[in-house]
Structure formats: C-alpha cells, structure tokens
Write a structure and sequence with these properties.
5 helices; binds cytidine-5'-triphosphate; alpha/beta
C-alpha cells in the first residue's frame, strides 16, 4: 500500500478488546480470562494522542475510555459483523480481543436441567475475525494481531503473523501468572516479518504506547501489501 500519512497525522484506529461470551443456554456461557486491559489501554492512549478510535469490545468490567466510538458486542459472531461494518474506516487495526474459537452448536431457549451424571456440549468453530480482515474484508491498512501462547511463543506468533496477514504480532506467554491475563503488567514480544523485538516488562499502559508507536510508524511508511 502507498500511504501519505506522516508521523503525527491523525489515524483512524479500530481496536478489538476483551473476551467474547458464547451462550450455552439463557443463564450460562463460555468465556475466557481476558480482562480487556491491554485493548482498553491501547484505545485510551490512541484517543489521548488525538486519533479517532473505534473500540469493538466484548464484556469487561472496565470504564469505556473518553473520546472513543464504543461498540459493545457479546459473541464472536457479533464481533465479526461489527469489524466487517467498521474496518473500511480504519487505516490501522489492532486485534487485542480474546475471541472464543468455538461456540455451542445448539443453544436451547430454556435453561438446561440436570439429568444424567455427565453431559457433552458440542461446539462449532467461530469465525476468525482477524483472519478474515485481509482476504474476506479486503482491508489494506496496517494490521496488528495478538498471540496468546502457553508454549513456543515466538514460533507460534510468527505462524499467526503469516497466516493472518499481519504487519506485527504482539505475543505474550499467558501461562505466566505475573503477566498476561487480568494483571496490569505485561511482557511482550513484537514479532515483525523480519525481526523480533523484546521490550522490557512494563505496565500495559506503557506497552500500549510502544505498540501504538510501532503501528503509527508502519502506517507512516506504508509498510504493508
Ligand atoms: N482472533 C480473532 N478471531 C478468532 C480468534 C482469534 O480475531 N476467532 C484474533 C485475536 O484477537 C488475536 C489473534 O487472532 O489478535 C490470535 O488469537 P489467539 O487466541 O492467540 O489465536 P487463535 O487464532 O485463536 O489460534 P489458537 O487458539 O489455535 O492459538
């Protein structure tokens, strides 16, 4: 892509954040341990810097940052539709959400009553939101993904960088208790097509600045397909 953006120019940044929630029945759901803190830190930092921010978020306990266009969603399917609707406005897209890969195949209208000693819930694949952005939605801007890994962090993140068409993947080891899900600090790897950077462990707020600086720099040089 060619880009006329200069460092300091205003961008429109679409950010996904938080977990998704997949109904099992009217009172139960499947979700994960994402707090949304990293995505919200990115959204508030970008808005403070004067960028237009579209924050598409699953359910979290966090306050919505000032001056962002906030689009609440619950399921992966809703997140997919919201991203499809809004991605055309963005020149930078950052996918920090922890999207459920599967949802229950059937969701009964009534609460499931207990009966047998064991039960099985059949799950079906959810759409890969980030994985659809380049090919299905035709997005040409800067694309930043996240990779939540418990082993082989850099290798798995590099695999996601290629398979999802990202310019940068922010990887973290979610098996560690001191970083990652639901804590204020994070230690990340920044995986680019030709290099990997390892910023020191820091607050999610500060790392949001680091990630944004890289995304804005990529946008300024038009470093994408
Ligand atoms: N992602 C997405 N939609 C999905 C799954 C993941 O948009 N259905 C995005 C996440 O927001 C993140 C990246 O893809 O930016 C990687 O997510 P992650 O959970 O680490 O990996 P998966 O692609 O789900 O693969 P796996 O669970 O097999 O590691």
């Amino acid at each position: 892509m060619t880009s006329q953006l200069m460092p300091g120019d205003q961008s429109t940044i679409l950010i996904t954040a938080g977990p998704t929630r997949e109904a099992i029945d009217p009172v139960r759901y499947l979700t994960n341990r994402s707090s949304g803190k990293m995505g919200y830190a990115l959204a508030s930092t970008a808005a403070e810097q004067g960028h237009r921010v579209i924050l598409i978020s699953g359910p979290t306990q966090l306050d919505v940052p000032d001056r962002v266009d906030y689009i609440p969603v619950e399921t992966a399917e809703e997140m997919y539709q919201a991203v499809e609707h809004h991605i055309g406005k963005a020149n930078i897209a950052i996918f920090a959400a922890a999207v459920a890969d599967y949802r229950p195949a059937v969701v009964p209208e009534q609460k499931i009553k207990k009966s047998a000693e064991s039960m099985t819930i059949e799950l079906v694949r959810n759409p890969d939101v980030l994985g659809s952005v380049r090919n299905t939605f035709g997005y040409k801007g800067i694309l930043v993904g996240f990779a939540a890994e418990t082993e082989n962090v850099e290798t798995n993140a590099r695999e996601k960088l290629t398979s999802k068409g990202c310019d940068l993947v922010v990887a973290n080891d979610v098996s560690r208790k001191d970083i990652g899900f639901d804590v204020n600090e994070n230690e990340i790897l920044l995986v680019f097509p030709n290099t990997t950077e390892t910023p020191p462990k820091d607050s999610k707020q500060h790392l949001a600045h680091v990630i944004l600086d890289h995304a804005l720099e990529l946008a300024a040089v038009g470093n994408t397909d």
